[in-house]
Amino acid sequence: MQLPTGSSQPVYYVGWDVGGWNCDANPASRDALVVLDAALNLVGAPWRGNLRTTLNDAHNTRDLIERLLGLCQLQAQGAEHVVMAIDTPLALPSALLALARGDAVSALGRSQENPYLYRETERWLFQRGITPLSPIKDMIGSQATKGMHLLARFAPHIAACGQWQSDDQTLTVVEGYPSPAKRSPAFAALRQRVSMPVSLEAMLHQPTPKQQDIQDAWLCAMLAWSLPHAAQNVAWPPATMPAEEGWIFVPADSLKPTV
């Protein structure tokens, strides 16, 4: 992943834990945002709410970036680049899309191997001890379409498998999965390196149930930061992974060896 350098183009790493389209009616689960800078400072303030209005009102990618940073109490200067890791499926299984066109697979087996329910990236993770959710069977369709909506409007171009970019390349979006990061030794060490106000330490390190989405957003922000700064700590897609299905980025040390 190549990012701009120089003080004129600061890069922020944003984690977004996704709530449903109408999550403002669900106090237990909301959208959450956390922003890190290149030096691993938590900048601004974590935000929790519903991004639906923000997504509706943003006119273009620059406007979206400024609105997202503004929610986190950061004043945009107009030249920021953002790498955003989103905790929701950002694509649907190719076999499912083919099925909708009337093209069925020949045979189906176990749930976790079902190509209608899971993309290849998810089936790859199952083989290595990670249990990702399916937007088809696990009731996260609202969250998934919210993330896909952001891609379609603001970052529609596949730059590489698992990486989407805006027209002007100021926004790069990836799919992150925070749950494996919670048991990753590399990310445990990384969490200790993040500089933050003392007032946020309890929320991020020992969250209450209603703060869990903020912690997940923080872990996603660390995944986004790791892509250019600690690439060896992240599992990257094999060359054979279909780019149109995307890729779920997780810590490399959270994977179990395949049998």
Fold and architecture overview:
- By secondary structure, this protein is α/β, with parallel strands linked by helices.
- It has nine helices and eight strands.
- It has a single domain (about 10-90, about 135-255), classed as Nucleotidyltransferase, domain 5.
- It has helices spanning about 50-55, 60-70, 95-100, 120-125, 140-155, 180, 185-195, 200-205, 210-230; strands at about 10-15, 30-35, 45-50, 80-85, 155-160, 165, 170-175, 250.
- Strands 1, 2, 3, 4, 5, 6, 7 and 8 form an eight-stranded mixed beta sheet that branches.
- The model has no long low-confidence stretch (mean pLDDT about 95).
Short description:
This protein is α/β, with parallel strands linked by helices. The protein has nine helices and eight strands.
Topology overview:
Blueprint lengths: L10 E7 L13 E7 L9 E3 L2 H6 L3 H11 L9 E7 L6 H7 L19 H7 L14 H14 L2 E4 L2 E3 L5 E6 L1 H4 L3 H9 L4 H8 L6 H18 L18 E2 L10
